[in-house]
Amino acid sequence: METGTVNSDIIREENLVYRKSRVLTDNIMHYCPGCGHGTTHRIIAEVIEELDIQEEVIGIAPVGCSVLAYNYLDIDMQEAAHGRAPALATAIKRLMPSKYVFTYQGDGDLAAIGTSETIHSANRGENITIVFINNGIYGMTGGQMAPTTLEGMKSSTSPYGREVSLMGHPLKITDLVARLPGSYFVTRQAVHTPANVRKTKKAIRTAFELQREKKGMTFVEVLSNCNSGWKMTPVQANKWMVENMFPFFPLGDIKVNGELVSK
Amino acid sequence: MAKVKGDIVVEIERCKGCEVCLDACPTKMIAMSPDVNSKGYHYMHKIKDDCIGCANCAIVCPDGVITVYKVKIG
C-alpha cells in the first residue's frame, strides 16, 4: 500500500493551519466513535479560545452522555442535577453577571426532565447561552425513546417505531423557546460536515457575543448522530440524520435579533 | 495562483476510527490503516501526498486528533 511521506519542511509551527484548541484538555473523550458531542466540545473550546474568555466563562454540565464534559473543557464548570442546568446557570449569571455562562445539555436533559427549567429560563430572558445536543434518543441509558424521537423511529423502548397515537408527537422544543419573548437568538445547526461545523461554530460564537451585550437568552440546537443508539456506523448515522431528522428539524436560524425568522 | 501543499499529523492513539474524516477529504488522500492502535481502533492515516491543507478532516474530527499544516509553493 502506498503511504504518505512525512514532509518535515511543511510540518513547522509557522505553517500551522489547524490544531486542537488548548481549551480542550488532553483527556481522551469517552464518547462513542463519530459522536457529535466530541465535535461540539471541540468547537466550544475553539470559540472560547478565539474570544479569549477562558478565565471568564462558566459552563454547566448536564446529566446524560455529556455528564463528564468538565473533564474535557479546561474552564470553570459546575455539574447540575438532571435537567436543572438552566436554573443553575440563572443563579450563576445573576451572582456573577460579568461571566459568560453556558449550559451544555442533551435532549433527555433539556427536553424531557428539564423542560420546565428550559421554558421558564427562556421566558424570563435569562442572559445565558444554552447549547442543546439533539440526537432524538436517550443515548447514555441505552437508546430509549426521547421526547424528540421522530415518528416511526425505532428505539429500545419503541422497537416497532414511535407510534403517535400511543406515544405522542416528537417535541420541537427549540421552536417553543424561539416563540418566548425572552429568547434573543435561536438557531438549529448540525456537525456532520465541515461546512456545518463551521456554521455551528459561528452560531456559538454569535451566542457568546450576544450574551456579552446582555441581549437575552441565546439558544443553539446542534443535531447530532447517536450511532450506538441508532445501531449504525457513524457514517451511516450521519446519512440517516440527513435523510430523516433534517426534514422534521430543518437547519437554520429560527430567531435572530429577537425576531422570528419567517420561513 | 500559488500552489498549495499541506500535510497532516494524526495522533494515532486518540483516533477512534469513526471514518467521518474520510468523506470530508476533497483529495481522498486519507484512509483507515489496516493496523490498529492500543485500543484496537483502525486509525486514520495518509495514503497519498495530495494534501492541500484545507483542514476539513480536522474540522469534522470529533476527537481533535488531526493537526494540519500548509505552505504556498511558487
Describe the protein's architecture and organization.
- The complex is a heterodimer of chains A (263) and B (74).
- Chain A has helices spanning 36-51, 85-95, 107-113, 115-124, 164-167, 173-178, 194-212, 227-230, 234-248, and strands spanning 16-18, 57-61, 76-79, 100-106, 129-134, 137-138, 144-145, 183-190, 217-223, 252-256, 259-260.
- Chain A is α/β, with parallel strands linked by helices and 263 residues long.
- Chain A has one domain (30-260): 3-Layer(aba) Sandwich (Rossmann fold).
- An eight-stranded mixed beta sheet of chain A has the order 3-2-4-5-9-8-10-11, sandwiched between helices. A two-stranded antiparallel ribbon of chain A has the order 6-7.
- The radius of gyration of chain A is 18 Å and the shape is globular.
- Chain B is mainly beta and 74 residues long.
- Chain B has two helices and four strands.
- A two-stranded antiparallel sheet of chain B has the order 1-4. In chain B, strands 2-3 form a two-stranded antiparallel ribbon.
- The longest helix of chain B is centred in the N-terminal third of the chain and has 5 residues, at 20-24.
- The mean pLDDT of chain B is 93.
- At the A-B interface, strand 1, helix 1, helix 7 and helix 9 of A face strand 1, helix 1, helix 2 and strand 4 of B.
- Strand 1 (16-18) of chain A pairs antiparallel with strand 4 (66-73) of chain B, so a sheet runs across the interface.
Name of the top-level CATH class of chain B? Alpha Beta
- Give me the secondary-structure category of chain B: mainly beta
CATH superfamily of chain A: Thiamin diphosphate (ThDP)-binding fold, Pyr/PP domains
Shape of chain B: elongated
Number of strands of chain B: 4
Average pLDDT confidence of chain B is 93
The two chains with the largest interface, and their residue counts, are: A-B, 41 and 40 residues
* General shape of chain A: globular
C-alpha Rg of chain A, in Å?
18 Å
Order of strands across the main sheet of chain A: 3-2-4-5-9-8-10-11
Terminal Cα separation of chain B, in Å? 9 Å
CATH class descriptor of chain A:
Alpha Beta
| Number of helical segments with 4 or more residues of chain B | 2
Secondary-structure-derived class of chain A: alpha/beta
Main sheet properties of chain B: 2 strands, antiparallel
CATH fold category name of chain B: Alpha-Beta Plaits
Number of helices of chain A: 9
